[in-house]
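Example 9 (inverse folding). The structure is encoded as follows.
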């Protein structure tokens, strides 16, 4: 069988298996990403070893699939940017900002400290902490909807804190990678950092300027032309150029450029058209390949002895650091301790952003295979535990009303 035929067969198997696993997970009232990660582990070297089969052992087709998975990351972050509403984030006030900020800082500190205790070097340890700082509230939002408390004070604060968390993690990742690359082998670290920051500022200024003043007009123009799916095609072109220029001009991660492109297109009047087209393309083809590739690259069998202990510690730190960081931030923002605790519990689950950061680290040699497998296990564990903890926490809520107008409540809190 030729490499192209092997590639076609592999794509068919992976997409079908990923979608089927996602469906089974939702039928079991679990997030689809859980099933998609598990089927990736099953198809990978941990169990079946799909790419080791004689009929599918082409190194070329394997590399193509991994490259498509990388493109899936770009699409995923663009869609995430489209969904960011800066106004909604601002409405949640200082609670969301403080919860999101401390929810990033605390896992970085605790995660890096734990990694250092296991003999990791400083740079990889900081990167492990950075991975732990990412969160995914899709599982929490689904659970809160089932409990009819998504519009509660905690629910709205949770959504706002998640947006702050995503933005801070992406920026922190970009700064970490940029400073690391900029200061390698240099004698003047302060000067290198200043140059890196200047390049980042230049990129953001240019990208935002184009997004605010040019993209809306360009999108309107393309919309009027007789081009099949012209607006969606424009969004793809701009997304790819933003991702490329983020690496080349700003020394940022490509996913930062894709995310920023999504935010910019989200401000246009054609947001829904773009979102519909990009969502279909992303979740029908590219994103499933990214999610299943996580498992295809992870070998659980590589964990042994101290690796198992390290994985258990990382899972525990991932849970505790989010509860402490986000909970303390929500408390400083004016919430009661029980309310703040529920916000902290809602931020426990990790998901796509954490996996993206881990994949970037693996590709750049910042973490090894054992750490990568540990991160996958951490994502699975936090995804499973969050719904149970949220149901328990909200069941203890006795005297608080189900529906709260958050802005008014925030104003009363701010007024003392």
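The amino acid assigned to each position is listed next.
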């Amino acid at each position: 069988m030729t490499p192209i035929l092997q590639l076609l067969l592999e794509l068919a198997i992976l997409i079908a298996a990923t979608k089927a696993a996602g469906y089974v997970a939702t039928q079991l009232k679990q997030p689809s990403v859980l099933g998609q990660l598990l089927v990736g582990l099953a198809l990978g070297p941990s169990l079946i070893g799909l790419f080791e089969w004689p009929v599918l052992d082409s190194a070329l087709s394997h590399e193509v699939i991994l490259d498509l998975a990388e493109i899936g990351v770009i699409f995923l972050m663009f869609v995430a940017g489209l969904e960011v509403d800066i106004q909604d984030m601002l409405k949640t006030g200082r609670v969301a900002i403080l919860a999101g900020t401390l929810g990033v800082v605390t896992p970085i500190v605790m995660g890096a400290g734990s990694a250092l205790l296991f003999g990791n070097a400083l740079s990889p340890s900081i990167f492990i902490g950075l991975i732990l700082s990412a969160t995914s509230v899709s599982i929490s939002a689904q659970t809160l909807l089932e409990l009819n408390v998504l519009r509660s004070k905690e629910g709205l604060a949770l959504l706002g804190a998640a947006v702050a968390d995503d933005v801070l993690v992406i920026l922190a990742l970009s700064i970490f990678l940029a400073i690391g690359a900029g200061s390698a082998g240099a004698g003047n670290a302060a000067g290198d950092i200043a140059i890196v920051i200047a390049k980042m500022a230049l990129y953001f200024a240019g990208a935002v300027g184009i997004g605010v003043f040019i993209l809306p007009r360009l999108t309107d123009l393309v919309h009027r032309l007789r081009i099949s799916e012209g607006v969606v095609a424009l969004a793809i072109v701009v997304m790819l150029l933003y991702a490329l220029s983020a690496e080349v001009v700003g020394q940022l991660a490509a996913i930062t450029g894709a995310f920023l492109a999504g935010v910019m297109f989200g401000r246009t009047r054609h947001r829904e058209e773009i979102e519909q087209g990009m969502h279909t393309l992303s979740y029908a083809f590219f994103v499933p390949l990214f999610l299943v590739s996580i498992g295809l690259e992870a070998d659980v069998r590589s964990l042994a002895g101290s690796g198992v202990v390290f994985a258990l510690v990382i899972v525990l730190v991932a849970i505790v650091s989010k509860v402490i960081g986000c909970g303390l931030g929500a408390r400083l923002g004016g919430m009661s301790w029980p309310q703040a605790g529920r916000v902290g519990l809602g931020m426990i689950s990790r998901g796509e952003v954490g996996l993206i950061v881990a994949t970037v680290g693996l590709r750049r040699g910042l973490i090894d295979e054992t750490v990568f497998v540990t991160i996958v296990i951490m994502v699975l564990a936090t995804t499973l535990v969050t719904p149970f903890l949220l149901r328990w926490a909200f069941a203890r809520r006795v005297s608080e009303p189900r529906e709260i107008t958050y802005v008014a409540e925030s104003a009363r809190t701010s007024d003392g």
